[in-house]
Specification:
2 strands, globular, 90 residues, 3 helices, mainly alpha
């Protein structure tokens, strides 16, 4: 199982180049075929008004780590059957 990288604009290390890498990595995770399942943490956390930022009510205040509500949203985004250790045939 793979998980996308959440938005982090506002974090001191964010810049347009880092955002471009995040977008590229997330595209690979979603469509690259390397994972048998994907938890789309980016989709869960991002603001519809500024997709490079975390939704304020999910942000712990540092713009990279979710608060308790955000962590619950991430947990809810993971389908338990996707965590099975059984190997799926290609």
């Amino acid at each position: 199982m793979g998980a996308t990288i959440g938005p982090f604009k506002g974090w001191y290390e964010w810049d347009p180049a880092a955002e471009a890498v995040r977008q590229e990595v997330n595209a690979f995770i979603r469509t690259g075929g390397e994972f048998d399942a994907v938890a789309d943490f980016d989709r869960v956390l991002r603001s519809p008004y500024d997709p490079e930022r975390m939704l304020p009510f999910l942000d712990n205040g540092d713009h990279i780590h979710p608060n308790d509500t955000g962590m619950q949203a991430l947990a809810d985004a993971v389908r338990l059957p996707d965590l099975s250790c059984e190997r799926r045939a290609p």
